[in-house]
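Attaching the record inline, Q. Sequence:
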Amino acid sequence: CVTWINAFATLTGMLWPLVAAGLAMTAFVLVRWRRERNRLLRGRLALAVLAYFLLTATMPLVGSGFPVVPNPGGTGQPAWTAATGLSMLAFILLAILFGRGTYCGVICPAATYWSGLGQHFIRYNVRSQRTRRLAAITRIALLVLFATATGLSILDSFRLIHFSIFGNDPAVFFSGLVWMTVWFLMLVVVPFLGNRAFTRFLCPMGAFLGSVSQAGFFRVVSRDPQRCLHCTSHACSSTCEVSLDVGRALAQQGFLKSPACVGCGNCAAACPDGNIAYDNVFTWLRRAARGRTALPGASLPVERGA
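Structure, as predicted:
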C-alpha cells in the first residue's frame, strides 16, 4: 500500500502532469474570466493562474529547495528547513492580514481548478447544518494530525527522537498521502459532495490558516445589513464555494468571519445589490486614519466606498 502511495505521489508531482493539468484548468478559468465583471474576482482568477505556473508547475524543476511551499514536508524534505519555516511564517502573516484566501484562493493549485471547472459543481454542494458540523470536526482532526506529523518531524530533525512511518519522515509521509494522493482521489466525489470537497473536509493547511485568520483582519461585510435582511435571492450563499450561509450571517450581524471562508469572491460578485465587500488590513487602516477603529471581528459599519 505504501509503495502504491509513493508511486502515485511521484506521478502527480512530475512536471508533465502538472503542466497538462494546469493548461486544462486554465482554459476553464479563462472562459470564466472573460465572462466575469467583478474586478476583484477577475484579479484573483488571474493571480491564481499565475501562481499555479510560477509556483506549483515549476516545483519539479527546482526540487526540494523550493522556498514557497507553506506545508511542512511538502517539498519531500523534513519539516525543519529554513525555506519551509520562512514560508510558514509568511503565510501565517498573510492569513492574519488578508485571510485564508491568500493561500486557498490564490497560491494553492486547487484555486485554479475550483475557480474554473469546479464552479459547475457548486450546485451539488451538501449544505446541511450536519455537514457544516462534520466539516468543523474534520478540520480539528486534520489540524491535530498535521501538528503531530510536523512536531515529530522537527524532533527527529534535531535527533531528540527517531520516528518514521514506513521509513519516511512523518511530515513527508503525511504530505504525500494528503496532498499528492488523497487530494487527487477526492476529485471522484465532486459530483456527490460538490465543489471544494477536499478543502471543506480534508485540507490541513487550509484548516490551519483558517484558524489563524480568525485573529486577523479579514471578513466578509455587508455595506447595508438591512438589504441583506430583506434579500430574497440568497445568491451569496448559493454561490459560496465552501457552502457557508453568507446571507444569514450578513443579515444578522453585518459581517461573516469564518475559518472556512476561502475568499473566493463569489458572494460579492453574485450579490444583485453590490452590497458585499471584504475587510482586510487596508480597510482597517483606512478606518483607523478616520478615527473609526475596531478589533478584528468586531461589528463595525462599513463606509460606502470600502
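The two ends are 53 Å apart (CA to CA). The first helix runs from residue 2 to 12.

More tomorrow.
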